[in-house]
Amino acid sequence: MISRQNFICTAFFFFGFLLPDWYLGCVTKMLSCTIPFTTLISVLAVSFVLSTVRNRRFLFAIVALVTITQAVQLNHWAYFGAPINSQDISKAFVEFDEILETGASMLSSLWPVWLAQVLSLAFFIAAVLHTKKCKHTPFMWVLILVALAVNPMLSYLKGHQLFHTKPISSTLHNTLRAFSDWLVNKQVKLHDFHYKPYVITYRQPKVKNVVFIMGESLSSRYMQLYGYGKPNTPFLEKLKSDPNFAYAKGVSSSVATLSCLQLFFNNGHNPGFIELISSKTANLFRLARHQGYKTFLISAQGDGLCHEVGTQFIDVYSFKKDILKFLKEKGDEALFDVLTEQKFGDKNFIVIHLRHIHEPYSNWEKYFPVLETKKPINSRELQTKNEYSHAISYHDHWVKQCLACIKKILPSDTLVIFTSDHGQLIGEDGLFGHNLMRSEVVDVPVWAYAINADQSLNHYLKSQKICSHYDLGKQIAKLFGAEITNPNEDPTLQFVHGTELHTNYEYMPWKKINGKAEFLEMEIIGATAK
Prior knowledge:
Elements: H1 4-27, H2 37-51, H3 56-80, H4 86-94, H5 96-105, H6 107-130, H7 140-158, H8 171-185, E1 199-202, E2 209-215, H9 234-239, E3 245-251, H10 257-265, H11 274-279, H12 284-290, E4 294-299, E5 316-318, H13 324-330, H14 334-340, E6 348-353, H15 380-409, E7 414-420, E8 425-426, E9 432-433, E10 443-451, H16 456-463, E11 466-468, H17 469-479, E12 482-485, E13 494-497, E14 505-513, E15 516-519, E16 523-525
Parallel strand pairs: 2-6, 2-7, 3-11, 4-5, 4-6
Antiparallel strand pairs: 1-12, 3-10, 7-10, 8-9, 13-14, 14-15, 14-16
C-alpha cells in the first residue's frame, strides 16, 4: 500500500522536474517553451515511480543525469534562443572552455537559469532524502530504465530526420530528444556516397606570399563596408577606392568554427564526403607545401579547433596557449609579435586565425576604448548590437595594423586574403549566436589586398557579387599553382554544412541567383544509415 509519504516525495520530484520550465517559460518568459498536459502526466507518473525506488544511489544517479543534461539545455536555450540539438552537444565537448567564458560574461542575463537549476536541484535532493520514509516496491527502477530507453530507441528506429527538437516543447522533452539522438547517432557512420576523388593539376605559382586571415563570428551585414549604417569600418571603407583592394559578400561553408575549418582547408564541398577530409587530397597546407611554400599557422584560438585541418603539413604553428599572456595584454594584436619573429622562406603561406569578434563582444573594448560615454540599454538585442558593432570597430583597427605589419615584413609579391569562419545572429527572430542553420549565420565578408602582387583573385572577387568559402578555397589553391577539379561538383549548387561532419548532420543547399544566395530547404545527410 502506498503511503502519504510517497505522495509528498512524488510532489518533490514533480516540482524538481518542472520548475525550470515553469519559471523560465511561464514566469520570466526567457524561454518560449510550454508544458503540455501529456508532459504533466508523464512527469507525474515518473515522479511517483521514483518515490517507490529504495536504492538511493540509483536515485542520485538519475538526479545527476537530469540536472546535468538540463543545465546544458537551459543555458543553450537561454543564450541562443533555441533548444540544443544532438550536433551542438558534440560540439560542446570540443569548445568547453569557450562556453564557460561566454557563460561567465552573461552572468547578468543568465542568473534566472541558474536560480531555476538550483531550486530544481533542491527539490530533487529533498525528494531523494524523503524516500527513506516512503513505501518501496521491488524492481521499480527497471521501469525508470525502460522510460529512459524509449527515446533512444525511437531515435534509432525513426531516424535523425524525425527526431528534431522543438522550440515550443518543454525543456525536458527537448533534452530527452537531443541527448537520446546524440547517444544513438554519434555511433553512426555515413554510408559510401561513391564520390569521385578530386584531381589536382600543378602549374607555376602566381604569388610568392599568401597571407590568409580567418576571422571569427563576423557578419558582413553589420559592417559599414557592406552598407551597415554605423561607421564601424572606416579603414576598410577607405580601401574601397584602392585599386589593390577587392571585396565581395561571402557565404561560409558551415555554421560552426570546427566544421568550417575542416571544410575550408580541405576544400570540402559535397555533403558527406568525409574521405576528402581524412585523405587531405586538396588540403591547402598540403598543396602549398607541395609547391615549395613554407607554411605557418598563427592562431589566437585553441589547437582543439584545428582537428583535421592538415597540421601535418604546417612547418610552424603557434596557438593560444603559447601566447596566452600576451593575448590578454594586447588582444589579437599580440599575433603581430609572433608574425614578425618568423623566419620566412622564398615562398610562404601564412594563416592567421583570429579570436575577436567572439563573444563576449565587450571584451574587446579594452583594446579599442569607446570614445563616447555609453549608457546601459535595457534591451538585450540593442545592447548586443552596440557591443557587436564596437567589436567590429576594433576589428577594423586590427586590420589596419595588420596590413601595416605585413607591408613591413613582406613588402612585395604578397596577397592578403580575409574571410570569417561564420557569421552571427544578433537578435534576429529573438535568436543569438551561431550553430543554427540560418542564412544569417553563414553571412561573412570576403576581401583581398594585393601588395605588389598578382591580382587575379581581386579580379575574381570584383566579378562576383558573392563568393563562397568553397570558391575562395579553390582560388587560393590557384595562387599556389594548384588547380582543383571536383568531378562531383554541381555548378548550380553550393552547400552550408552543419556542426558535425562525421555522422548524420544537417546541410542546406543554396544557389547563386542574380548575385545573391538563395537558400533551399534544409536536408539531412546519412539519416538512413544504421
